[in-house]
Fold each of these.
Amino acid sequence: MTNDKPKIIAGLVIFVLIATSPVWLNRGKTKEAPTPVMAAEATAKGYCVMPKAEMKAKHMKVLDGWRNSVVRNGQRVYVNESGKQFTMSLSNTCLECHTNKAEFCDKCHVYASVNPYCWDCHVDPKEK
Amino acid sequence: MEKNRRTFLKAAGASAVGLSIAPAMKAHAFGEYFMPSDQTGQQENALIGKHWGMVIDLTKMTEEISAKLTEVCHAAHNVPKLDNIKHEIKWIWGEHFDHAFTDHMNLYISDAMKHAPVPVLCNQCENPPCVRACPTKATFKREDGIVLMDFHRCIGCRFCMAACPYGSRSFNLQDPRNGLENRKPTNPQFPTRMKGVVEKCNFCAERLAVGKIPLCAEVSEGAITFGDLSDPESEIRKVLSASFTIRRNPGLGTGPSVYYIVGGGGDHA
């Protein structure tokens, strides 16, 4: 019986190595989060609908709010905290500044593995 | 001892359930998210009414005008042209009199009406059966009477199509972009639709919001009057009090907001 001890330990070591292989095989290889490219049109304006950090974290919620307010409430104008007016529209507002959907929106989304289905219907004016 | 363990396990189980459904409860609490109402509004020149309606004067309607209505409307809303008739998508189109007015069972009608193209579209009913049939509230009635579709909510069940007695609704059996030239939207400002959703005329809600009347009325060469049916001073009410009008299948109780002036034929028409 005691003879099996080394075999069991060796087996355990191999198991632990295999089980943890993703961790150490990928060490130092983590992919940098991409920096979205700001389009000239956006830079020229210099402001977004909300402060940058808020947009980064909440733009999906903003878009959700926009579509509900537009479609269900018939409200199409949004006034932000600093009094700036925006027509609430995905293609006609967001993409008027962020004219580079591929280098901006998609860059983050591909990295984060999110694939918004909006573009099945909404149009990227660049692709027209 | 026995009892203690049981109580412990019960408490552990209950908290495990609580923890696992908490995120779902939280997500649910958000519900439908709207922008705060003090931060939203309408454009100054937006057309605002209590009950939008239309009068279509069939005595002024020609094949050319009727065809133009379809063409212009469909181009503005990226309505595809699909060859397979079962896949056809229509927002406004010309119909024969006896197809449009199926409860108007006179055997003999005026020649003028027998041959007049009758443009038909969503009737924007006062009592819309499609709204009642929709399980997700994707189709709803706005305060201004427009029966609108929220495409973001449509699950493609087609109950609304079964409920609509006018065939005003079409279902996207395939990607509608297949029916657009080079898959490019004719109007990039307006979204297309996608496979698996129902669609119909929206009374140009997007144009009313920027102070414009529906496109079909605009290009109709005076054959279509658009206006607020609830306003006795409105142009549309004047037109209605000056002519004899009919609506499609009023006996069903849907209360269509689209009226038709029918001509008697002869010189006065």
Amino acid sequence: MSSEHIRNFCIIAHIDHGKSTLADRFLDTCHTLSAYQMKDQVLDSMDLERERGITIKAHSIAMDYTARDGREYRFHLIDTPGHVDFSYEVSRSLAACEGALLLVDASQGVEAQTVANLHMAREAKLTIIPVINKIDMPAARPDEVKEQIRHLIDCTDDEILAVSARQGIGIVEVLEAVVARVPAPSGDPDAPLRALIFDSIFDKFRGVVAYVRLVDGSVKRGDRVRLLSTGITYDVDEVGSLRLGLIPRERLEAGEVGYILAGMKVVADAKVGDTIVPETSAGIQALPGFKPLKPMVFSGLFPVDTEDYVNLREALGKLALNDAALAWTPETSAALGFGFRCGFLGPLHIEIVQERLHREYNLDIIATIPNVQLRATLDDGTKVQVNSPADMPDPGHVAAYEEPFIEVRIITPGEFVGNVMRLVQDRRGEPHGIDYLDAERAQLTYLMPLSEIIYDFYDRLKSCSRGYATLDYELFDYMESDLVKLDVMLNGELVDALSLVAHKDKAYERGRDLVDRLRNLIPRQMFQIAIQAGIGGKIIARSTVSAMRKDVTAKCYGGDISRKRKLLEKQKEGKRKMKQIGTVHVPQEAFLALLRGQDE
Amino acid sequence: MTDPAHWRDLGPGIYLHIPFCRRRCGYCDFASTTGDAAARNAFVADLLAEIRLVAAGGDFADETFRTIFLGGGTPSLLEGDQMNRILGALRDSFAVTPDAEVTMEANPESLEPERLDAFLRGGGNRVSLGIQSLDDAALRLLDRAHDAALARHRAGELKERRVSFSVDLIYGLPGLDTTAWGTALDGAIELGADHLSAYLLTLEPGTPMHVAVATGELTLPGEEEARAQYELLVDRTSAAGLSCYEISNFARPGLESRHNQNYWVRGEYLGLGPSAHSHHGGWRWANEPDPGAWSRAVQAGGGASWGMPREAGGSYREMSEAADCPILFRERVSGREAAAEWIFLGLRRTEGVPWDLLATAAGDGAAALERRTGFLAEQGLLERQDGWLRLARAGRFVSDAIFADLMAAMEDPVPVDGTRR
Ligand SMILES: Nc1nc2c(ncn2[C@@H]2O[C@H](COP(=O)(O)OP(=O)(O)OP(=O)(O)O)[C@@H](O)[C@H]2O)c(=O)[nH]1
Ligand code: SF4
Ligand SMILES: [Mg+2]
């Protein structure tokens, strides 16, 4: 098939606007899957994606479409995730495409990721086709949404398509627009091979599968290829198309999206963003790659059952095969035992990793309070990087701290602007601008510390806007901040797992909050327990758990000592399962509840 | 490390379980049946058979018993001659010191003077009277078969005969406040017993009272109220000259129950009858609790012996492997288990436990145990004095938590220290 009949495009949108459902309808229309294979959001293949109804990884699939003009087209579709933590998945997908369908929910309107993803697609110079989805909904407001879209994109009302992915309305029009508006790929089939690795996955049976977009040339089984960044050469074992599974083909040609198997052992071998070229070629220009993924948020992961440490290490290793954003180093906590300090893209990423560990590796995990990566400048001018509260240098020697700031975009109905502004200002946000997408929809931009959104921000944003406000952010830069380490003590003994980094102005409030919550989670013991929060040596909040007053049983009837012993052994085992902080026993569940925030 | 000399005349003891009650009280989950006269006769025959069997086995031939305790159930339901046959059989079959403490548990409704006199004639010298309360509302709540007047009357009969007796009380009852408890307690003290046991009501799963509390029909007093009742108990008894020698037991000096103390100092004893427990030669074992099953096993056991288990090849082993052995289980107690027993038995006594005894049993857990006892002493829950470890008064009412805590400390020889990283 000549590249003239190829269309590479992706679907981008805010979370839940219906990308995966629209992809389902495309697959129906193109008869790509059998009735047996088909199900709702079929491309969301991970268990976790299916259960939560969200897309975590971008999914590529090839489809054959017979257009109204009677000609056959080969579509390569990439369904992308909508959540901000996974926006790197979107940016990679864009590199494999010439066009993007920008989907907007007809009842929700333009939201933060709509704008963020649109910006990325524009930067990647993609042709954008705006599509309003869910027009079947009673709350659909297609005309208002059109106005919002026109505010963002220079287009006419007629160019904005309207569909119901769920009911299959307007699907063919979208596919026709793809044929008509998305340019065919423009590479040179006769030039030497140039293929961009835009994703790679690890398959238990087949090893590393590199997802590629061929820009120039072609590739087939038996070719010897080289990766430009590493210089390592490989024999191509197999090439093919991405369907629900891998479908081997004779060759892949310029303009196509497909996969290459070449005996690569670990995902790092097939680095996303690298360019594949023929072994012998010289002087070939690398394709523009991607910014390396940098963990933004750190948290300690500890196995609930301390015996699971080794299993956790192995499981993280396996997860990392498919999750290039995950980074970790060993960490020890007096309270929680042995674990790992892990770097993540954001709070949802932490949650997903935790859940995958549970689901796929049967590991129960406690995650400590997340923190961002800090930079400390010491008195003597040396700079140190801090990934954990425990690593914070002695405050006496720190000249200044810097922490990452982000540019936040919040889109909200006008009536909640006041609430949102109050919330953001409370989180040290500095207003950068306000813009109205239409009479009713405001877009607020702020500069604020990343640390302020990883702690309970999203929920508050939602609750102060009755669920309407949405948020997107990108890293801005490191800036100076007045930070302190907040510690929690039980009867004077530090609970290292609860230490956290806080802004000086917030420390009191957070200390109070931690102390109050702990008070409700620690069972009474035979003696009184003082719970304190402090900065350095200074106590800023305290509370007490009063002593238990009664725990006594009657005699041992008729010399039945064995029964009594069994009862006490049970009680004893209960204590042994708790974590001992100095002299105080703290149930594992208390840490769990506190760190998972489930007690509220 | 040997036991303190003054513990030696506490045991060994013999416990006999008499599994009959006139009817089942609403809070009780003991092994007992109502049974008629014929059943009691058959039971006594079986018990006599068991006494002879154990004696014939010879495992206790070297022991001189210092206490006998008829418990239940309601031993006072037995006829006078039945009691005498049992006590006689014990003296015929085993060596029993002439001054042995011979106690019978009795309920007011069945302790008629004839029975009491028969018991005394047979060598009995101590009665533990299950009055439970002197508040008629409380007695109805407990579903007891007697009222306060009868309890007073029986106490009077005991006093007339100058028999040393103990009264049992229960506090922490649903609907009874501390004032009502104080009144009942004062009444009980006025009965003039030498000994008083008072237990906080424990709800046993499955008993009618447990159900009533679970469904909200009855409400137990709160923690502070129960504690206040305990404090009142300790204060009033000591004012009356009954000193607290164990968490729940009070006596005039010298009149403490030797039989029960023997349990708490981990002494040896032989248990006979269904569900009875024994401790001998480093083993603990228990008889089959079901009276029918126990009886069948006794009847089938002619000639064989049971009693002290021998580790290999002995009579006990043969017995316990036989299908109709009356022994439900046995276990060897040593090391950590022995240390645990020192904690949860020995510390119940006000005198406490010699630290060396406990430390030796705890082995490599001793250091951690020492640290933890030090901490709990600082908290005012334990006392360490002259080489003895004991519960402080403030620790008595949270004793189970302390025991479990010490047991846990002992098992983690290297406790996670909050400051260590
Ligand atoms: N009423 C209606 N609901 C729709 C339509 N399209 C999708 N939905 C529903 O919207 C929800 C989200 O759909 P998805 O397809 O999972 O959305 P998504 O954009 O892929 O979500 P993420 O991948 O998590 O960003 C699902 O419950 C769909 O059934 C539509 O046209 N009409
Ligand atoms: S008399 Fe004692 S043993 Fe019998 S049922 Fe009542 S409480 Fe239980
Ligand atoms: Mg999706």
Amino acid sequence: MLQDDAEGGGGVALKDLDDILSESIRRNGESLVAVLQDIQEHYNYLPERALRSLSRKTGVPLIDIYRVATFYNSFSLVPRGKHQIVVCAGTTCHVRGASKVTEEISRVLGIGPGQVSADGNFSLDTVNCLGCCAFAPVMVVDGEYHGNLTPAKTRKILTSLKAKWLLPAGEADERGLVDDGDAEETEGA
Amino acid sequence: MVNMLLNGLQVSVDEGMTVLEAAKFFGINIPTLCYNEGLTPYGACRLCLVEIGEPGRSKLVTSCTYPVGEGLIVRTHSERVVKTRKLLIELYLATCPSSKVIQDLASEHHVTRVRFRPRDEKCILCGLCVRMCAEQMQGKAIGFARRGVDRKVTTPFDRKSEECRLCGGCMYICPACQARCQGPREEKPICNACLNLSQPCLDYFDDAMCFMDPCVACELNSGRTPKSERRNNP
Ligand code: FES
Ligand code: FES
């Protein structure tokens, strides 16, 4: 408990945490991955404190939770950007030019794979197959899939999205540019 | 009881046994690395490979996880098995040349060369410590984390675990770190020293704690007092 508070997940409000855990456990029962997805969706990453309290609540040994949390690429133990860009580096996508696409994304956003932008606005990750090789090369932006990418197409998509993201929140609302509905679909491979 | 053909011998064994257990029962020695009688079989090291099925349509399976079955044909020391086994040992030697257990396996199986670059890894991911902790010590303090080339054994969040009672079970059972050779370090990945020489450790580390149990060199030189006994009754 002590260690929990000293080193747990920074600014996570504990009351929130309890609600989310109980609700998610009630809904998902035994499926650890589903519960972890709920936590990740809410906090944008898996805070240590959340995992510790999940272990206490469910009786699942912490090491097993940690094992699952570090196994899947879609889980992160450190905070991710507000907007998450996932680009596929799987075999098919690789063959069809994923590395060029990744380079282009890095150029547009100024961050490399596995990094978060300094303002915490977006992060870029690579995964090893998103399960839709027919659209290779593929990237997912906040849960929305973009397929058959070329560097030029990627740049176009990203620059328009970036412009949208970087607007002050109020302004974007007024212009009707923000739709938060997408955020809920953030599930990875 | 099920009947099977073990190295050309018609035998009948209890149902539910693994091929490894059956072979052991009939006195056939199959080398293992990640197997321990007190722990659930895991099939990680692949060293216990045997060949099953008709010749020409046979395949290699890990005997520690493969259940016996009616009419199963098993060859534990066919050419293909021996060749693959030696290659595996060679790979393990390159991964972790300082492991006494692996060095002894190499000597035992006449592995005389290593064609891979030695890597001096501290862990071969056999999972013995993880199972020891969970199954025998009821600890669940350590486990695997990450995946692929980054896979490793660790505690949650890579920090001291609250579940760990420092029982040392993991170190006791580890083939890579527990039995780390205390003798002079060889230049080459293959040492073979204990089998070929008299105790290489004798004048080298006179007071050092020796984890070798049993020590091949001590046993070969039974004229002298084994090191472990020297330690116990000075
Ligand atoms: S390789 Fe990219 S979706 Fe399968
Ligand atoms: S002993 Fe069977 S795979 Fe390791």
